[in-house]
């Protein structure tokens, strides 16, 4: 059997691994995790590492507020840019240099 890597405290998407208490089911290892919304579940280690399981599903029900075209100081929002934990926004400076930045 391979050496078990401790994932306690590590974040995978919206999941945080809670403890070094994995369950072994057939050939899979499941870790106790907590989603940012507070939901706790046992999640397959492979699904965590490959990014297959990112949350309990709570994030898919949240509506994204469309900020495209809105101005914040000198920055104009161009498009949504998915970040690791929240949606970020690609913005362009209103000056002629066309500098882009994710905020």
Explain what the structure shows.
This protein has 103 residues and is mostly beta strands. It folds into two domains: 11-61, no CATH class; 71-102, no CATH class. 5% of the residues lie in helices and 40% in strands. It has one helix and nine strands, in the order βββββαββββ. The protein has one helix at 45-49; strands at 11-12, 15-17, 23-25, 28-35, 40-44, 71-72, 75-82, 87-93, 100-102. The strands form two sheets. Strands 1, 2, 3, 4 and 5 form a five-stranded antiparallel sheet that branches. The longest helix is centred in the middle third of the chain and has 5 residues, at 45-49. The protein is elongated and about 60 Å long. The relative contact order is 0.15. The model has no long low-confidence stretch (mean pLDDT 81).
Keyphrases for this structure?
103 residues; mainly beta; 2 domains; five-stranded antiparallel beta sheet; four-stranded antiparallel beta sheet; 1 helix; elongated
The radius of gyration is 19 Å
Order of helices and strands: EEEEEHEEEE
Structural class: mainly beta
- Individual helix count: 1
Give the SSE map.
Elements (H helix, E strand, L loop, with lengths): L10 E2 L2 E3 L5 E3 L2 E8 L4 E5 H5 L21 E2 L2 E8 L4 E7 L6 E3 L1
Antiparallel strand pairs: 1-2, 2-4, 3-4, 4-5, 6-7, 7-8, 8-9
Summary of the model, kept short:
5% of the residues lie in helices and 40% in strands. By secondary structure, it is mainly β.
């Amino acid at each position: 059997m391979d050496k078990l890597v401790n994932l306690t405290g590590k974040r995978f998407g919206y999941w945080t691994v809670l403890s070094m208490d994995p369950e072994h089911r057939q050939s899979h290892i499941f870790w106790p995790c907590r989603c940012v919304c507070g939901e706790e579940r046992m999640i397959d280690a492979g699904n965590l590492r490959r990014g297959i399981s990112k949350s309990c599903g709570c994030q898919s029900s949240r509506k994204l507020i469309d900020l495209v075209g809105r101005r914040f100081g000198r920055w104009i929002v161009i498009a949504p840019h998915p970040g690791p934990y929240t949606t970020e926004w690609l913005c362009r400076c209103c000056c002629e240099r066309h500098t882009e930045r994710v905020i």
